Amino acid sequence: MKESIAILCGGGPAPGINSVISSVSLVFLKSGYRVIGVHEGYKGLFTENPKTIEIDFQFADDIHKQGGSALQMSRHKPKNSEFSTKFFTENNIQLLVTIGGDDTASTANRISKYLRDHDVSIQNIHVPKTIDNDLPLPEGIPTFGYQSAKQEGVRISQTIYEDARTSGNWFVLSAMGREAGHLAFGIGAACHFPMIIIPEMFDKVEVTFNRIINLVISAIIKRKIEGIDYGVAIISEGVFHFMSDEEIENSDINFTYDDHGHPELGNVSKAHIFNVLLQKKLKELGVNVKSRPVELGYELRCVQPTAYDLLYCGMLGFGVKKLYDEGRTGCMVTANSVGKIEPLFLDDVADDSGKVKPRLVDMNSDKSKMVFNQGLQFIEPGDYAKAKKFVENPEDFDFRAILNW
Asked: Residue 161 in contact with residue 337, Cβ under 8 Å?
């Protein structure tokens, strides 16, 4: 039977997935392998009759530049009891290529161990994917999809900023990011937004709605002092990961709750929450400012990849073959700015429980310091006298005092 490789995608989509599938497929087809695409991720892999596609040269060539994923994705995380050797033995699988985040990678490792314990030996190589840029790759190397998602986020955000100027409003944007603020930071910095709020900022104080809203108001008042009645504030959804359930419940926002009694944040627009609380606080202060919410997330995940990700994903795909030929397994493939391919083993970036610690925005980096200290617009002690025209206690909206910086 012809030697085969299998490719599957886990989690949510990110620009460049098809570029990875394409490049992996082409380089293995060239070497005489059969390439099998598995639909529905791990859920599909362990069904009685997996839904698969035979990937040929034409298919691989066609999907290279497309957004979305030619292989249907799933967030299903199988239990060990679901594992089976059937698919691997019946198709003579030599390599399992997984495309996804840390959960997808750790599951691939569990599968490989299960197969070894049942006398089936395969290699598994993971391609790290997320628009959140929060996987712990070597310094300066983004996760694929991040640059394309950021580019589309900037395109949308620039039209929002123009709408703000045209209509004399403020907009409150919420950006995806899980625990990390990379996407909000990247979009906000590129657009020169007057206020960027990410969870990493709260390194000296607790994350609360009051502090978040006061930071937005700090920018609003500063711009009023400058004679500007419009603007945009972007807030990373990651702030919710560092809030207590009590803080969230006391926001007076109506939530549904899961089986464990936790608020189901996925059912609510984060931008709506921030905007409602902002409007409530502005009314209490007697500051007449209109604001509107905009959510940035799903719009970014299936756009066509930019040139950066097209090339980058190609290098990652070819890199899978390089690592395979070297006999590597249980690792992520990485490619640096000059195309050097290196394996990154999960054991080297995971804690004792096997969980991969997310890569957060480095608040001590030169870039972060420059953006937050020079690029934003906010109240400082020198603004207090002029700010009193708009608020009674300007010190409550002093950017550095709010964060205890």
From this structure: no
